[in-house]
């Protein structure tokens, strides 16, 4: 089989793989499809050709060797653009209850689930679980109170998600108070 054909098949394998694909996995896939045996040297030759092809400025992606495998990733020049899309998509997926829970954790951390529920006035099991799954919060440890409940705090991903360098950059409650939520006249 011509090297060019092998290269195209390897390129397709890497493109379709959700995670990095190892040389061994590539060999297994190709040998299962083709009659002639593909050897490691052919794989590395193709990987070099693919890497050279995508290293050109014409492409926004590149071939990266990571975790003992190969994967197409966006070039560093485009990380901010892709990050904005990911942030936009992930923000849309948080429910109102999850946002309330996240805000409580952000402002009162470290905090127990019971304290969250006392502030919200409703059960917060599902919201806390979703925030843990999305890695927006993390477990800080256990409180020194009876029963030793779990303490939650925001994670580094929370900081990235909201574009913060430090928690003191969170809006202060006085900055987000709506005029319709005040009683009486404002004399200031």
From TrEMBL:
Q: Which Pfam families match?
A: SMC_ScpB
Question: Mind telling me which InterPro entries this protein's record contains?
Answer: ScpB_csome_segregation, WH-like_DNA-bd_sf, WH_DNA-bd_sf
Specify the superkingdom: Bacteria
Picking any one GO biological process from the record gives:
chromosome separation
Entry keyword set: Cell cycle, Cell division, Chromosome partition, Cytoplasm
The protein's matches in NCBIfam families, at most eight in alphabetical order, are given as: SMC-Scp complex subunit ScpB
Listed name of the protein:
Segregation and condensation protein B
At the highest ranks, the source species' classification is: Bacteria, Pseudomonadati, Bacteroidota, Sphingobacteriia, Sphingobacteriales
């Amino acid at each position: 089989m011509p090297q060019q054909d092998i290269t195209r098949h390897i390129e397709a394998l890497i493109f379709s793989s959700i995670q990095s694909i190892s040389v061994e996995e590539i060999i297994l896939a190709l040998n299962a499809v083709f009659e002639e045996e593909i050897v490691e040297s052919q794989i590395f030759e193709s990987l070099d050709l693919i890497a050279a092809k995508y290293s050109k400025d014409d492409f926004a992606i590149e071939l990266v060797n990571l975790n003992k495998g190969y994967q197409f990733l966006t070039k560093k020049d485009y990380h901010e653009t892709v990050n904005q899309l990911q942030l936009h998509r992930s923000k849309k997926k948080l429910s109102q209850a999850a946002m309330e829970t996240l805000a409580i954790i952000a402002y009162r951390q470290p905090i127990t689930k019971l304290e969250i529920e006392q502030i919200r006035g409703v059960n917060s099991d599902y919201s806390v679980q979703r925030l843990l799954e999305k890695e927006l919060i993390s477990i800080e440890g256990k409180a020194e109170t009876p029963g030793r409940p779990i303490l939650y705090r925001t994670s580094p991903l929370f900081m990235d998600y909201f574009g913060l360098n430090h928690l003191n950059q969170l809006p202060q409650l006085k900055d987000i108070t709506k005029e319709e939520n005040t009683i009486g006249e404002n004399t200031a």
